């Protein structure tokens, strides 16, 4: 646990040094202003969940990929191979710190937009956190074998981002509704929609089960890819 806390503290320091928090807060304020100007409070039930799906999910995905690529270019990864740091600690540290910041971004957006009427915070928080964790894990898994942004983005990362954000078309009522329930990120999205609109019992069960399964699957994928391509000292350990 002490090793994980130390890793998280270091990650936060690196994120501060890279101006991640400054940029993220400024973007969140601008997004909040844009939502306030372009949408009415009555549309908040779809606007904010959609913003979280695209904005928060996408930023955690891209931020963590950029951090891993930076650590590769600065040979930090090579140094970590000689340290007692475990793959599990590396993955969890980045996922937790980036997802926590994503939650702060969302709070800033909501505060600036001023759309807080009728919000049930629990399903929104659960959907946001699981979406952030899943995007961070899958981003680390995908970037593990790459050494540059270009090879990472084209075409794999762009295709994955596109698939993860497909639930947006479901809320637009494009295509059969049940088809969207096969998309992994539909679970967190349903829960976030449930923060504003009553859900049926099966939708709550689906949202919770799918969200948890998504996080576990993405975490396992990231572990497999890191052990294949990054090879920290704990290779082969659970």
Can you describe this structure?
The radius of gyration is 18 Å and the shape is globular. The chain contains ten helices and no strands. Helix 2 (20-38) runs parallel beside helix 5 (87-113) and helix 5 packs across helix 6 (121-143). With 238 residues, the chain is an all-alpha fold. The chain is 75% helix and 0% strand. The two termini are 16 Å apart.
Terminal Cα span = 16 Å
Determine the number of helices (DSSP H or I, runs of at least 4 residues).
Answer: 10
**Biggest pleated-sheet summary:** none
The average pLDDT is: 87
Q: What global shape is seen?
A: globular
Helix/strand-derived class? Answer: mainly alpha
Helix content: over 70%
Radius of gyration: 18 Å
Strand content: under 5%
Order of helices and strands: HHHHHHHHHH
What is the number of domains? 1
Unreliable stretches (pLDDT < 50, length at least 5) are: none
**How many β-strand stretches?**
0
Short description:
With 238 residues, the protein is an all-alpha fold. Helix content is 75%, strand content 0%.
State the main characteristics.
10 helices, 238 residues, globular
Write the layout of secondary structure elements.
Elements: H1 2-17, H2 20-38, H3 44-73, H4 76-81, H5 87-113, H6 121-143, H7 149-164, H8 167-171, H9 186-193, H10 201-229
Helix pairs in contact: 1-5, 2-5, 3-5, 3-6, 5-6, 6-9, 6-10, 9-10
């Amino acid at each position: 646990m002490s090793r994980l806390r130390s890793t998280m503290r270091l990650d936060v320091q690196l994120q501060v040094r890279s101006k991640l928090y400054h940029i993220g807060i400024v973007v969140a304020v601008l997004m909040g202003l844009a939502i306030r100007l372009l949408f009415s409070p009555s549309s908040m039930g779809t606007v904010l969940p959609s913003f979280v799906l695209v904005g928060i999910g996408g930023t955690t995905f891209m931020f963590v990929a950029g951090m891993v690529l930076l650590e590769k270019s600065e040979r930090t990864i090579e140094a970590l191979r000689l340290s007692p740091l475990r793959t599990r600690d590396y993955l969890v540290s980045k996922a937790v710190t980036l997802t926590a910041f994503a939650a702060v971004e969302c709070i800033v957006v909501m505060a600036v937009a001023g759309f807080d009427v009728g919000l049930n915070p629990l399903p929104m928080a659960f959907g946001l956190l699981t979406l952030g964790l899943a995007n961070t894990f899958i981003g680390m898994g995908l970037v593990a074998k790459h050494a540059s942004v270009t090879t990472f983005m084209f075409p794999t990362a762009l295709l994955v981002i596109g698939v993860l954000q497909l639930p947006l078309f479901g809320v637009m009522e494009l295509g059969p509704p049940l088809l969207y329930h096969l998309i992994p990120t539909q679970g967190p999205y349903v829960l976030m929609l449930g923060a504003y609109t009553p859900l049926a019992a099966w939708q709550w069960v689906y949202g919770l089960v799918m969200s948890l399964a998504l996080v576990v699957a993405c975490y396992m994928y990231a572990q497999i890819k890191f052990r294949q391509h990054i090879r920290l000292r704990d290779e082969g350990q659970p």
